[in-house]
Amino acid sequence: MKSWKENIRRIDPYVPGEQPDLEDMIKLNTNENPYPPAPGIIKAMKEFDFDKLRLYPDPTASMLTDSLAKYYHVDKEQVFVGVGSDDVLAMAFLTFFNSKKPILFPDITYSFYEVWANLYKIPYERPQLDDNFKINKEDYYKKNGGVVIANPNAPTGIYENLEFIEEILLHNQNSVVIVDEAYIDFGGESAVRFVEKYENLLVVQTFSKSRSMAGMRIGFAIGHKDLIKALNDVKYSYNSYTMNQVSLCFGVPAIEDDIYFKETLKRIIDTRERTKVELKNLGFSFPDSMTNFIFATHPQIKAIDIFRALREKNIFVRHFNLSKIDNYLRISIGTDEEMDKFISALKEILC
Ligand SMILES: *Cc1c(COP(=O)(O)O)cnc(C)c1O
C-alpha cells in the first residue's frame, strides 16, 4: 500500500435514506414533513436582498439565535445554530467528548452517534435497549465521558417523560448530557426547561422535521452559556460561517409563524394516530410513537419483503439492515392522502 494511503482517516460513514426523484412517488423514508414550510418564508424569499450574497453572512447568526432565544425564553448566549442538527451534534461531540472514559448512548438509536464517535476516536459504550425497545435509565448511572439520548428515540419513536430525563441528568452531573430532540414537537415535552437547573445539559433540535425545512439545513442547541461558548470556540476553529445568508433569512419566519407550525403539527399527529389504528388492523405491531414516524413489524411477512413490494409501487419507507431491527420498517407520516394510498398498498401486499 502507498504510504499516503495508510494515513487516510478511515470511517464507515452514515448512510442517509435515499432521495429518489420520481414523479409519482410516496416518500415516507426520511421523516420529512409532508407540508410546505411556513408561508412567511415565501415573503422572505420575495424580499430577499440578493446583493447580500456578495458579503459573508453574520458569523454569529444573530438574527436566528435572537429569534430562537425569544421563542424558547432563554438568553441568546444560550443558543447555538448549525447546518442541520447533524452539524450541531457533530460539533458537540467534538467539543464535549474528550474524556478517556466512554460516552454512552443506546445500542439502537440514531446511527450517526456511532459514526461521530468513530470519526473523532471517542470511546463509547452502547447499553442495550430492553426487549420493548425502552432505555434502561440505570445503564447511564455510571462513570462516563458523556451521555447522548435521543428523546423521542429514533428509530423506535418512543418518548420518555421529563422525570426520566431528569433522573439521567441527576446521575450525570459531571459529564455533558446531550438530549437530541429532533422529534420533540410531535407531542413530547422539551428538556429545554432544565437548562437553567443543569448546566451540563445540551438540548439539540432541528428545523428539518417539525418545521418542514430539511432542505434548508438548520439545527440548533440550547444550553448553559458556557456550553454554548465552548461550541462557538470549536465552530470558529473549524468554519466561522456555517450559516449562510439564505438560511438566516428564511429561518426566522419559520420560528415566528407559530400558528402555522402548530396547525401542521396537529395534522401530522392526527394522521399518525389514524395510521396506528390502520396498521394495527393489518396485524402490525409497533412501539407507541410520539414522532412523525412509526416503527412497525408484521408477524407473518418479513419487513424486507414488504419494503421491496412497496418500492415496486413507488412507495418508499426505511428498512435498516441491522441486527434486532431488521424485521422493522420505519414509516414516516405523510399527508392523509399519502397514508391512505400507503395503507391500500399494504392491504394488497398482505393479502
Ligand atoms: C433527522 C435527525 C437528526 C438530524 O437532522 P438534521 O436534518 O441534520 O437537522 C438528528 N437526530 C435525529 C434523531 C434525527 O432523526
Protein architecture, described:
The chain has 351 residues and is α/β, with parallel strands linked by helices. The chain has 2 domains: 15-37 and 259-350, Aspartate Aminotransferase, domain 1; 50-257, 3-Layer(aba) Sandwich (Aspartate Aminotransferase, domain 2), CATH 3.40.640. Helix content is 36%, strand content 12%. It has 11 helices and 12 strands. It has helices at residues 3-6, 40-47, 62-72, 84-96, 112-119, 162-170, 225-235, 245-256, 258-281, 303-312, 336-350; strands at 26-27, 79-82, 103-104, 124-125, 146-150, 177-180, 201-206, 219-223, 293-296, 315-316, 318-319, 329-332. It has a 7-stranded mixed sheet, with helices on both faces. Helix 2 runs antiparallel to helix 8 (245-256) and helix 4 crosses helix 7 (225-235). The longest helix is centred in the C-terminal third of the chain and has 24 residues, at 258-281. It starts with a helix and ends with a helix. The mean pLDDT is 96. Bound molecules: pyridoxal-5'-phosphate. Residues 31, 84-86, 110, 150, 154, 180, 182, 206, 208, 214, 219 line the site of pyridoxal-5'-phosphate. It is an enzyme of class 2 (transferase). InterPro entries: Aminotrans_II_pyridoxalP_BS, Aminotransferase_I/II_large, HisP_aminotrans, HistidinolP_aminotransfase, PyrdxlP-dep_Trfase, PyrdxlP-dep_Trfase_major, PyrdxlP-dep_Trfase_small. It comes from Mobilisporobacter senegalensis. Residues 24-346 form the Aminotransferase class I/classII large domain. It catalyses: L-histidinol phosphate + 2-oxoglutarate = 3-(imidazol-4-yl)-2-oxopropyl phosphate + L-glutamate.
